[in-house]
Every structure is written in structure tokens, then in C-alpha cells.
Amino acid sequence: MNDKDFKEKLKKVKQFKIDNNERIVDLMEQLSNTGFNAKRLGRACKIYEEMILDDDCTIFFGLAGAIVPAGFQGIIHDFIESGFIDVLVTTGANITHDLAETLGYHHLQGDIDVDEINDVQLHDQNINRIYDVFLPNEVYEGIEDFISSLDIKNLEMPVSEFLKFLGEQIPDNKNSILKVCAKKNIPIFCPAFTDCGLALQLGFHYKNINLNHFKDMLKMVDLAWDAKVAGTCLVGGGVPKNFIFQSLQFCPNSAKYAIQITMDRPEQGGLSGATLKEAMSWGKVAHSAQTATIIADATIVLPIMYWYLKKVIEN
Amino acid sequence: MNDKDFKEKLKKVKQFKIDNNERIVDLMEQLSNTGFNAKRLGRACKIYEEMILDDDCTIFFGLAGAIVPAGFQGIIHDFIESGFIDVLVTTGANITHDLAETLGYHHLQGDIDVDEINDVQLHDQNINRIYDVFLPNEVYEGIEDFISSLDIKNLEMPVSEFLKFLGEQIPDNKNSILKVCAKKNIPIFCPAFTDCGLALQLGFHYKNINLNHFKDMLKMVDLAWDAKVAGTCLVGGGVPKNFIFQSLQFCPNSAKYAIQITMDRPEQGGLSGATLKEAMSWGKVAHSAQTATIIADATIVLPIMYWYLKKVIEN
Amino acid sequence: MNDKDFKEKLKKVKQFKIDNNERIVDLMEQLSNTGFNAKRLGRACKIYEEMILDDDCTIFFGLAGAIVPAGFQGIIHDFIESGFIDVLVTTGANITHDLAETLGYHHLQGDIDVDEINDVQLHDQNINRIYDVFLPNEVYEGIEDFISSLDIKNLEMPVSEFLKFLGEQIPDNKNSILKVCAKKNIPIFCPAFTDCGLALQLGFHYKNINLNHFKDMLKMVDLAWDAKVAGTCLVGGGVPKNFIFQSLQFCPNSAKYAIQITMDRPEQGGLSGATLKEAMSWGKVAHSAQTATIIADATIVLPIMYWYLKKVIEN
Amino acid sequence: MNDKDFKEKLKKVKQFKIDNNERIVDLMEQLSNTGFNAKRLGRACKIYEEMILDDDCTIFFGLAGAIVPAGFQGIIHDFIESGFIDVLVTTGANITHDLAETLGYHHLQGDIDVDEINDVQLHDQNINRIYDVFLPNEVYEGIEDFISSLDIKNLEMPVSEFLKFLGEQIPDNKNSILKVCAKKNIPIFCPAFTDCGLALQLGFHYKNINLNHFKDMLKMVDLAWDAKVAGTCLVGGGVPKNFIFQSLQFCPNSAKYAIQITMDRPEQGGLSGATLKEAMSWGKVAHSAQTATIIADATIVLPIMYWYLKKVIEN
Fold first, then answer.
1. For position D157, what pLDDT does the model report?
2. Phi and psi of D291, rounded to 5°?
3. Which end of chain C is more exposed for a tag (fewer CB within 10 A), N or C?
4. Other chains touching A, judged by 3 or more CB pairs under 8 Å
């Protein structure tokens, strides 16, 4: 291609303005004409919209990070209720915290900018810290009581089945991820389930429990294998990202849509920060896929994306 | 303080929802009841609002990073036009790019997610890259022509005076930072002015130029010294942050409000990523100051903050 | 405390020099008199040394990140062979890659600085990319052959038992982590075992496999519970860090020594980047613990630490 | 290229070991056969070695970050004394801190891992904090006394000339950067000189001072223009990196060697974190250049590099 052709193909960066049009959908559209992470946020909104509108697409959603303690349980709930997620892969911590909130316990606000946080004092007062969020120990006692009251018929079911059972047992709640997944029959996979407070309580109370992680793994492969079209949104890295990607390798056409929202970076070589291009070498993401990586805190990005998608789907 | 008192003082993390109320002001208010960077974004909006409403407050705004190439020249323009900035400290690059856009040149969109970027090809086609933004070399020729047409009466004026003169010479423009600052008499400080393309052109054309950086430095100290109340919003780190902070040490009461939006972190010891608490040890920020640090890309945060402030001030 | 006392208590930063004394032990000692990450590297070496010399101490070592593909399988092997690790918690990926290298397959060097990496071409050539390391697909075929040749007597054993069995089956090798752990009876825990290529092969070949993750979880709690003294070195975050920490909560005295080497940061709220002080609020790390967090790539830090420890222990 | 040729061209990742050979030169050579940042550290050592051995090469060294307070003034001194740096570009802060140490003042060690840092108390005790390093205010009084004793003949000399003059005035010192540069006639450029404590004192005492920043800028362009071969090592980003790069654009062949050591990343679009490939689009770095970017804290990397270079040059 000669110089002139190349340059003429390029679009201008349009200076972003907020004038009279304050519709979130138009603002995100505008952002996609800028640069850096803002542009990729604009693009990611559009890609997610296309995933939703593509009736053949199975949307695999990876959720790492303490998103429930931070106060975004309700946003994830709404993603699921709105039909924006077909398969959820998350950490044991998010499930434990979801259960705690659903049982009526609460996370509390610390203030990292104002107070000197003194972790020794917090420990003396039986308060656990998650950055600027506090979690009193009594939450775990509540989970313990709840767990010991369960009647688990099959101690060898897959983790995803157990999580569905759990969702059915808990009270109704406008924010609960477990509950809305159970209601809408959205599978939750949690490959590192024994790495959380809920699993510890289960292990202490049910000596013979052996939830079947391999059946989950194979079911997930089947979901990817059977997907006519696959798309993924990865919030944070960790096990959820890797588990979705190892399954997508079995999807005949790899992922056609891929979004990641993370603070992790590629240079230290870990999978959490790996680019979506790297995923193409593995056949996890298709060569022709629409992709966007936003280097940003999900607590800022997820509410904006949900807001965009809500409005776009309403219309 | 005993356990019970401590816990009762703490507020709950409220799960964030976007329901029928989609007013940006209310959404940011809601965010301040969550955790992590989202909470600090909510707090930062509120702190900036208070800075604006505090009639005695001089607002020092530090702007590092390639914010103009990315497409957010217009947002900075609007911050200034709306009266949200009293003193601007920025990099030579932002001034050079502002001038380029104001003279009618444009930045172009690359696509880091889609294309393989080949920097050798770009160089062959006389295109410079700023992450996913492209800048054709012809821009610098345009700046050269403009510079050689100037009639600079005093080659030893402070940089800030020269930038005001520049703002007066350029055509009117709805996005130009130089123009709106000249119109509204907002000083622009640029301590590393010789570190940019505009300064190179000046140096090549005006052999005896010796813009007085020390007068700027002292003027800035005076501005801090005279501020009844001082507040600061730091976008990125670098020289703008340090220059504002070294001046604020001379403010009798230090900064009462301080916001920073950055991707830099404290652990490597550089000033760019230093916490606002560290700034308290130096007397740059007051002990009782309201502060918020958002670890995020400014291209995402600035539009949201502007939107919030615009609505809050309208009402 | 008054000003004078406070200042007199402080030690000077000593300017670091490499003169005639080039002994690694002395250089690390010198580093501990400086600042920033270098100082914490010096401190971490000393803390690890004390852990080793403390005969009562059980050393829990967490290993996330693609440390084997990067070429540091041998360093981890030597940590274990030298007796510097009592309990290893790692990812399925590291085990899969360890197995591949032990079976005679190799990772290959890409060059991120020199070549334009084209992931589509890599995929066409059946090469998978891990940042700047390439892994040909044939490796997985080799693992498949190996797995199908195994005679697994008990499909419900804990993962840690299976990994020991695996270590016994593989050929001897001067770098293999699985092998040296089997030989020295060092348990390997892998809570997210189904999140890796090895587990996929197991699941495909052994339809009834249900390795017991809960028994691992409880065994790990017992190890922490029984530790007279506990210490931990966390390389990267992820599941290994969390799994060690959830267990250390059950250690009567919490960890007395804690080192972490990571590129993750606290501000986004995830456990991977959480500070060791935060761990004190949970009772994972003791109030009086010796701690050091190094924000650095483990591929640089681990060889230096091993070198230091090797020399210190020899003497 | 067909598959087979491509694969055969690739080198194996060699598992790194520290056996009996503990020579730093051999260890770095070994590292260059691994992956991730360790490999790039190995490569960077080799590239720096080649720069030194290339008699035609002018080595431009950029130094941002608080490297003197952290205790690595002596290492930079030794780089210069050994002839590893031909042109130094740094921040006002590093010069101010270098002067302080040379005048007999000292930085003190805080302890970020052990103590709760209370910045309000530090301020009350007239101690300024730079992450985990403390700087008592009395240092600035010492600098003030020194400055007021100077006999500056020409208040309009370039900053680089003033810094040479300063180096001549200060006492001899085995660590001083100013001193060794003056002795060896190595120019120090400091484009943001008015952004530091030393410049503040100068401005307060010499009302008519107007050190000529533009002459520095042009002299730097000349140095790049005249370099038969250019090489650069960039420690941190900021103004030093940009100033070197804007000058290298005028080097007929661009930089043939380029190393950067930084914790900054490309995704937010700032120049500090920009890749060396991006620099090729601008003609700052040659297409065929040898390059390495290490994402790491310079306080860890610089001592290792110096050690390697010292041994390699001795032999």
C-alpha cells in the first residue's frame, strides 16, 4: 500500500465533547473515536452489544477480583438478569461474599485516603480488610450456620450443580448472583472452589464431600464445543480467564468476540495480563475476532458498560 | 475506642445499581458508597465540586500524558471555559499537540487491537505513533511555518507569558487549550518547555531566545503563597505534579483539596506515583485535606468528572 | 517520642557500591541499607535465611505465573532440593509445563523486542505463545501419550497424592519440580488443578476421575494448624497466595515470616496485589512478623535469592 | 517461511541454574537464554557492553526517579567514572539530592513494611518522605547556605554549564554525580531544572538569574547530530527520556542501541511507558537497533548491570 492510500484509510481522532447530548450510548460511541483506554472502552461496549444481538452467541463471562465486596454484586446480578451472560466462571471468594450479602450480612467501608489503616487494630476487633472494604468475622459464623443447615443429597455432584442447589436454597434477593443464576439456569463454574471460605465450611461439616471438579471441566469443554458462536468478557485474570480460554480452544471457531477489563499487563508473562492477540496463537480467540482490552479497574468500567447495554437493548 | 463503637461508626458498602435514576450526579454519589477505585472516583467528583464552590480556592491543575492526541483536548478546554481551573501546569507535548490541532492538523486513529502495528512501515510513511494514535510529520512543518511567522517582541519573557502570546495569535477554536487560557487569562506553566517540538522550532528560528523559566517558577510560588485556599487536581505525574507540589509547600495552609488520577504507583519510589499522604509529610497537602487518588486512565475519568461537574454547576 | 529521639533512631541510607567485595551475601546485606525495592530484596533474602535456619518453621511456598516456561524450573527445583520449601502450592500450568520439560519437550524463545510477533502465523504453525516463549502443540500430544499410559489405581485420591504418584512415574531429571518433590516427599497442592492442560487430558482418558480437592484443602489446613512456626514466600498472587493464606488463618500463631514477590498492586482491591499488612487483619500474618514485599518480576528476583541462600547455607 | 524452517530457527529456552559457575558475566549470559524480564536483563547487559566497546558510540543516559535518595548515587557515579555514560540527562530532584549528599547531609531509612508510616507526625518533625526514605528539612537549609555562598559570574549560562560550575565548587566525593561529571567533562542536561529545590534556592537568591534552557536544547541536538553512532539507556521515563528521544530524531542514523528500565507501561499512552518500537516510528531508534526493555525497578537492575559491565570491561 502506498503512503497516500494508507493515510487516507485512517480516521481522525475526534476531540470528545459533552454538549447537549448526554445519552450514554452516544457518549460511548463518541469515545470509540478517541484513543487510549477510553477508545477501547467505547469499542468494548459496541462489541458486547454485538455479542448480545448475535442470537447464536454463547457469552462466557470470567469474573476475578473482589467485585462483590466492592459493591458491584448488583451490577453482575443485572448483567445476568438482562441475559448478558450465558456462562459464568468466577472465584470462590466472589461466591462466598455473594452468599454473605444474600444472607443479610454486609461489607463495610474503610477509608484508605483518610484514615491511617491499622491492620493490627482491625484484627483485634475481628475485622478483616479487603483494601478499603472491611468484613467482620461474624459473617463467617453466619455462613457456617447456613452451611450446617443444608441437606446435601449428593456429595459428589459437580461444583456447578452444587452452586445451583445453593442458589435455590438462599432467600430471594435483588442483588444475589447465586440466586439469579439458579433462577435463570445460568451455570456458574468455580474451578478453584476449595480456595474459599465457603468451601472450608463445607469441608469441615461434610467429611465425605468430594464435589466433582472434572465433570465441571468437561461440561465447560462441551459448552465451548457446542457453541455456534462464542464470545467472552473477562473481568480480571486468574483462574476464570484461563478456564474460559482452555475451553474455548475446543470451540470449533474460537471466540468471535473478546473483551478483557484488567489492571494486569503482559510483560511479566503471566496469563492474567496476556493480550488477546496472544490468545489467537492458541486458537482461543479467532483471527478475525472483534477484541478490546481495557486496562482499568472493573469497578469503574462495569457500571458504564451495563448502563450502555441496558439502554441499547431497551431501544 | 471499643469494638462496638468502631464498627458502628462504619458505613455499609451499598451495592451499586443503575435503575431508573440515571442522572450522572446521583450515580457518582452512589459510587462513593462502594469500594476500590469506583468509590474514589465518586469521592473525587464531590471534592472537585467543593473546590469549585469554595470561592476562596485557587485550583492548580496538573496535566501530564498525551491527553490532546488521545482526543481530550476539548474536555480540558471545557474544564477551563467552565472556570474549573485557575492555574494550568502541563507538558510541552500537550502544548505542541494543542497548537497542531488548533492550526487545523489532526491526529489519526491506529488500532492496537486489530492491526499488527509495524513501526518501521509507519516511519517509512512519515507517521509518528503515540500508542494507538498516529501523527503525520506534516504537522511539524505546519508548526514550523506558524512559528516563523510570529513577531516575538521579547525573547526573554517567561514561558507562561509566551504561551499567552501564542494563545492570542492562534485562530479561535472550540477545543484549544492555549486559546481559552489566553481569553480567560488562565496562566499556563510549562517547566520543561524545551522538551517539546514547539520549543525546538523556536530554538531553530530565534537564535537568541531565552524564555525565563525562573520567573515562571517564582510566579508560581507567589500564586501558591497568595492562595487563601489551595486545591489541586493532578492528571498523571511527571513535572506538572512536582511543580505544583513544590509550589504548594509555600502555601501557608497547604492544599485543602487534592485529587490525583494516575496509573503510576508508589512502590518504585518516584514522585509520579507517590501517595497524597506522602505529600502531607512535605507540607504540600494539609493534614485535614480532602483527598482522593484514582488509579485509572485519565481518558476514562476526565470525561466522567467533567460531566458530573457540568451538571452540578448548572443546578 | 520527641523529634530528636525519633531522628536518632533512624539509620542512614548508605550509598550502595560494588567495590572489591563481590560476594552475593554481602551485596544483598548492603542492599538492605538502601531504599525502594532494592532494600526489600535485601531484607527478603535475610528473612528467607532466617526461615531456613528456624528449625521449627514450616515454609509454605506459593508459585503462580509461568515460571517453568520462562526457564526457572531449575531454580524452583533447587529451592526444593536444598530444603528451602516444605509445602508447595502452585498452578496447573506450572505442573503441566514441568511435566512437558521432564518428558523431554522444550519451550522455545520468541523475541518480543526484535520481531513483530504475528500470532496468526504462530497459530498456523501450531505454536502457542506465552509472552516471549513459544510452545509447540506437539508437547500436548506427548503429555496425552504419557497420561494414557498411566495406571491410576485410585481415581478419587487427593490431587496432592496424584501429583506425588506422577512424580514417581516420570524419568529422573535435574530440573523437574514434580520429581524432586516426590523424592523428598514435599507435598504439592494445586487447588485449581482442573484449570490446566494436564487435567484436560486426565479428564478425557479417565471418565470416572474425581480427584478429591476437599481432602487437599483439609490437609493443608492441618499443615498450618500443626506448624510450630509458619513462614511463607509468595511468588505472584492468584490461587496459590490465597490458598496459603486461607490455611495460615488456622495456624495458631499466624505466619512469623512472609515474603511476596509480585508485580500486582493493592489499589484495584484484588487479593493478588494485597499488602502483607492487610493479611495481618485476617490473622494470616502475625503482627510481629518479619515481612517484605518486592514489586518485581520473579524471573529476576528468584535467581538472586537462590544464589544468596545457597551461599549463606553453605557457610 | 515454512513451518519446519521457522521452528528450527528458534532457540530453546534453557533452564537457568546456578551451579559452580557464579561469575556474574556468565549468569547474565545464561539469563539471556530464558524468557520474560530476566531474559531482557541478560540482553540489556550484552547491549550495554556492545555500546561501550563501540568506540564511535555516544551513550545518552536518561535518569528519572529518586535514584539518589534510594542509595544508588554511587552506582551512577561509577557508571560515569568507568566511562559508561557520555551524556547525562536527569531531573532537578536527582541533582538536588546529589548536592545534599555531597555537602554531607544524608537520607534516612524509613520502613514501609514494619512501621505504620504517619505522614502527619513526620511533618511535625520536619521530615519529608520519599516512599521509604526520609529527608530532614535541614538538608534544604544546608543547600541554601551553599547556594548563597556561590559567586555565579554569568546568570544566563546554559543549565548544563551551571551544573558543571556547581560540580567544580563542591568538595570531592566518591559518590557525587555532579563532581564526577565535572571532572570527566560529562555534560548534565536538566530540561526541567526549575522544578526542584535547588532551583528554588537559586531563584530566591539571584533575582536576575535566567539560565538558558534553549542553548542546552540546541547543544543536545548538536550532540545527537554529530554522533557517529548513538546509544541510549533510559532509567525511568519522564523528561529525561523524552529529551533524549527528541534529540535522537536529529541523529542521522537514529539510535543503534537502546535500553530502557522502567515500571511504566504503554497502555495509557504516555511517553514514559512507550515501547522502543514506537520510538522507531519517530526515527528516534533505528529499525535495525538492538533493543531491550526491562520492566523492573532500577534499584534492582542498575547494580546488576554495573557489576556485569565492570567485570566485562576489566577482562
1. 98
2. -135, 150
3. C
4. B, C, D
